[in-house]
Structure formats: structure tokens, C-alpha cells
Amino acid sequence: MFESDALDIAQRSSTGSLPPADDIADLVVRAHARYADVNEGRVADYIPILAEADPARFGLSIVGVDGSAFEAGDVGVEFSIQSISKAFVFALVCEEIGHEAVHELVGVNNTGLAFNSLIAMELNGGSPMNPMVNAGAIATTGLLPAESSEERWRRVREGLSRFAGRKLALDEVVYRSEAETNHRNRAIGKLLQSYGRLDPDPLETVDVYTRQCALSVTAHDLAVMGATLADGGVNPITGEQVVSAAVCRDTLTVLASCGMYERSGEWLFEIGLPAKSGVAGGIVAVSPGKGAVGAYSPRLDPAGNSVRGQRACAYLSRALGLNLFASARWSTPEPSSSSRADTRRHAEEHPDV
Ligand code: GLN
């Protein structure tokens, strides 16, 4: 479909920068206050332990590519990363096997169906199509080069820890709760095997996937991990190059079309940022070249996306000027064009989704 030599031309990165620090600090507190009382949605309970989460928890963190952090609420509370791990394992696998192989072996299109769908694979000749739903994510985990499942798990954990800039721990209780009840994911693993889409042992690969979903993170960790994708693959806290800039571009592209499950189109329409959510209530939304928002609140909409997290991201995207698709007529920039008053006025004019 595309001329491959055109893909070799160097790409420019997204331009612009975040508004002044005082504005960001103020807006993150406002976003938190604005949505803290929203009680719509339900805490996930299909993984039994997740039902015990405190629905009142709500944390928001913004980390810039310069490493600055702006936070409000429960930003230090740990929860399981769940599906958000799919984005970062995808990046690690892209780094190892490359753009073409991932395109061919997993696919980069939205299935339009629920994250744990089996029928999506059946309808598409056995292709998982989308690395951000369970089938594609289990296939992706199976593509991470390793001699054994133990080594694959070690590489996943170390890789995600490099994105976070600290050693991430496995939440054993969450892992056990999901491992005892994940019959559907095991069926997905077997179905992938039957279509020749999974080389390593399917049940062992599902086990590695279950562990990766049970890594504990905070809203702050998610913002650092997202800011690494926003920063050409360099962790803004540790300075480590975790993956290449080309891999960040590929990962963010897939997040834009597939990161919010079957609501990805609506998310992009309202918020205009690549993002990924998980059923424990986390969301990471990435603004290429600028930074990332990490959100945590466990009440979910029917697709499995945090309700407060989505609303806060919409507010912040508008208030901070993050939407990738928003433009204004070109004119010579004036020094006052991103003044604090402008930023606040914009937030108040476009408050909610
Ligand atoms: N571990 C979860 C599962 O496989 C992740 C799903 C999610 O966060 N949407 O069901």
C-alpha cells in the first residue's frame, strides 16, 4: 500500500511545548476538583480482586519531557497496570523485531470489538489484528525473543521498569486472582496457536501476559512511562534511551487508533491524543514532544475505560492545548500567544466531553 522507500525519509517530530509550569500546576488541581465527585461507572469485577478497589481513588499526574511533574490526588496509590502494559510490551517487541514484522504478524487495525473478544479473530482469518486487545497482546508478548517463558517474563518486567524509571513489582494477589479465573484468555492463547499465530507455549505465554498485567504502578509511573514515549524513547527522569524514536512513533500510532478499545474513535474525536487504558482504572495519554498524563480512578465505562480519567484527560487536553489535530491559522507567533490568561480562558470555554 505504501512505497517502502518513502518510509526511510526522516520524520520531523511534533512541535510546540507545554504552557508555563504555574498554569499546568493549577490546571491539574482544577481537573481533579472538577471530576472528583463524578460517581458514574463501575469498578471491574471479572477479575475478583479488582472488585475490592476503593472507587473514591482519583489521581492525576502530568510529566513533561523535561522531567517536570504536576500532580493532584492519589498519585502515589499503586494499582495493576493491566492493559496499559500492552502499549509498552508492544514498544519493546517493535524494538526487537521491527515495524514490518509487527505489522505482518500482529496487525495494527482496530477490531471494533471488546478487548477480550474471540470472535474478532475468527472473523479475521485468525489474525489478532490489534495489539491493544487481549488476542493481539498475547501474540505480541509471544513475539518477544526469549529462550524460555521465565526469560520472557524477566525481559517484560525489566523493559516496563525502564519505561517507569524504577523497578516495578508484581502484585502477587492480583496475579493469582487473574491466573485462577482467566479461562477466556487461555482460550485466546489456544485459538492463536490453532491459527499458527503463537510459537511459544500458549498457556505459558498467557501466564507471562497475566503477570505483565499485574505489575503495580501509580498514576505518576504512568505519566513517566508515557512521557518516555513522548520524548523519542528517552526516559525524562533517568535519561535512559529505552526504545528508539521510530518505535515511539509506531506505538503512539497504534494507541491513537486502538488504545481505548472500541471507543478509540470517540476518544480521538474528543481528546485527540494517543492513549491506553486498563481495567484497574489507569489511563496514560501521550502528547508527542511535550509529555504525558497519567490518571487513576477505578470506576469504568462499559468499554472498560476510567470515567473520571477520561473526563480529566479531555479537560487537560483542551486546557493545555494537547490535541494533535487542533490547529489555528498560521501567523507570526506573538510573545503573549500562550499567556496564562489565554490558557485558563480556553479551559473554561471548553470544559467537558
Ligand atoms: N488482564 C486483563 C485481561 O486480560 C487486562 C484487560 C484490560 O485491562 N482491559 O482481561
TrEMBL record:
Sorted UniProt keywords: Acetylation, Hydrolase
- Point to the regions of Polar residues compositional bias: 330-340
Entry annotated with the keyword Cell inner membrane? no
Binding sites annotated in the UniProt record for substrate: S83, N134, E178, N185, Y209, Y261, V279
Q: Which GO MF terms does the UniProt record name? A: glutaminase activity
Where are the stretches annotated Disordered?
Answer: 330-353
Q: Which GO terms describe its biological process?
A: glutamate biosynthetic process; L-glutamine catabolic process
Compositionally biased, Basic and acidic residues: which spans?
341-353
Swiss-Prot/TrEMBL catalytic activity: L-glutamine + H2O = L-glutamate + NH4(+)
- Record family assignment: Belongs to the glutaminase family.
Known partners and oligomeric status: Homotetramer.
Full protein name? Glutaminase
